[in-house]
Structure formats: structure tokens, C-alpha cells
Amino acid sequence: MRSRIADLKKELERVRRSRQLHRDRRSKQAIAVVSLVGYTNAGKSKLLNALTRAEVVAEHKLFATLDPTTRRVRLPSGRMVLLSDTVGFIQKLPPSVVAAFRATLEELESADLLLHVLDVSHTDHVEQAAEVESVLESLGLEEKPTVTALNKVDRLAKSWPFREDTPDAVAEAMDEFSHAVPISAERGWGLEDLLASIDRVLAGDLVPMTADLPYAAGRLVNLWRSKGSIESEEYLADGVRIVGRLPAALRGTFERYRVRAPSTREGRRGRGSRST
Fold first, then answer.
1. 206-264 architecture in CATH?
2. Is residue 156 exposed (0-12), middle (13-18) or buried (19+ Cβ within 10 Å)?
3. How is the chain split into domains, by residue range?
4. 57-66 in b/e burial notation, b at 16+ Cβ within 10 A?
5. Do residues 74 and 225 make contact, with C-beta atoms less than 8 angstroms apart?
6. Interval 138-169: pLDDT, tens
7. Is the pLDDT confidence value at 109 over 70?
8. Measured between alpha carbons, how far is 153 from 182 in angstroms, rounded to an integer?
9. CB 259: neighbour CB atoms within 10 A?
10. CATH 3.40.50.300 at 2-203, yes or no
């Protein structure tokens, strides 16, 4: 048994190092990471499958997801992000179990946003959400931007959008949880609204910029489209002027092309002042 434990620890350390390399590579690419969290069997893997067709194992059993699965998804703004699944939490998760799943939970530390998947149809969903929040607090992640997916609303309503009054459990949860969006991963309800909410929250980490990109730098235009958001494009004689927002990590890449607003002194000179 001691030998087996030693082998497992070595394997976990290998996984941890491998995941760290992946995180470092993603950081250099300045692509946002959205990590799914939630109580076990809340539907995280099924939601990942619905959004990305990842074909992740989605079973109704404890700890069905042990190895983080990461897939790309495009948001309504055109920005590309990575969705990463994690192990489901349970009540009173022992510290030894948290340590064993460290390779999985470390994904949360580097995430730009947490997507809390909550089974709103469960009678104990409030207690389950509190347990998830407790684990996140123990990991020092309580300040992470969070969007809450109120999953399995198809068990509370027969139609979508809700033709009658919103179910009480859903209405209360929308008031209680951060950026809450009712969805059904099983039926595909509300997924576009969920992606739009993620898009809005992530937009807070983008910085505004206007840049004149030469036509020969088409790669940079594609980079901007996939990593940031574009508000307008104007085609000029020498290139395209883009107005939009970019991740702060990419600002240096576009700095040489940035269009700077004229200073006050330059503005006065432009109106007839002459320097000597």
C-alpha cells in the first residue's frame, strides 16, 4: 500500500507539472480561462459537452471528473476562451481529498472567471452552493469573478422561455447568486444567454485601444478578433484602423500601432500656433 501511495503521489506531481506548463502556455497566449465549479452531479461535464461538444464523461456518480478537461469556445463578441472542467465538490470535503485533487483545483487559481454550475432543481441547492463557496474560500478564490449557471431548470418548468411565472426556486436564485442565468444543459436552454453573461463579465479585464494595423499584419487582426473585442473597423490606404478592447497582456504587442490622441499642446499648434 505504501508503494502504491508513493506511485500515486509521483503521478499526481507529474500531472501537476504538466498542467502548470499548459497554464504558462495559455498565459503567454493571453487567452481567458473559464473554470467550471460546482457540487458533484450539478451538471458541469454535461454543460461543457453542450457548449463545446467535448464528449466528456458525464455520469451521475461521485468524482466522475478527476482530470481537468479544457476546450475552446467562442463568445458572442467573437472572443475565444477556454472552458475547463473540475472535480465536483461535496459537503465537508476532507483536507486530504483537497490535497489529492490539487492538480485539478490548481486550474481554478489561474482562471480568469469561475462558472459556478448549480443544480437549482435540487432541494438542497442553497446548502450545496454554500459548500462550493466554502471550498473556494479555503483556496483563497472567493474574490474571483463568477457567473452562476442555474442548471436543470427543465425539471422545474415545461417550456422555454418560461411562458408562465418563473419558478420560485429560479427567481430566488437569480436574486441570490452572482450573474445568475437559468439554463438546462440537457435541453440546451439558455446557453446563448450564459455565453453572453460570461462575455460581459470578462469584458472587464480588457483595456480600450485604437490601432492602425498594416494590411501585411493580418495575423494581428485575427489575434485581436480571437482574444479581444472589436467595436469598429475602418479600412484606410495603408491598413485597417481598429477600435476595440484587448487583454492587458497583449497591449505591448499592439503598442507600436496604437493611435495616440493629440496632446493639448499639439492641439494648440494644430490651430495655428508655431514653434520656434
1. 2-Layer Sandwich (3.30)
2. middle
3. 2-203, 206-264
4. ebeeeeebbe
5. no
6. 888 888 899 999 999 999 998 898 877 889 99
7. yes
8. 7
9. 11
10. yes
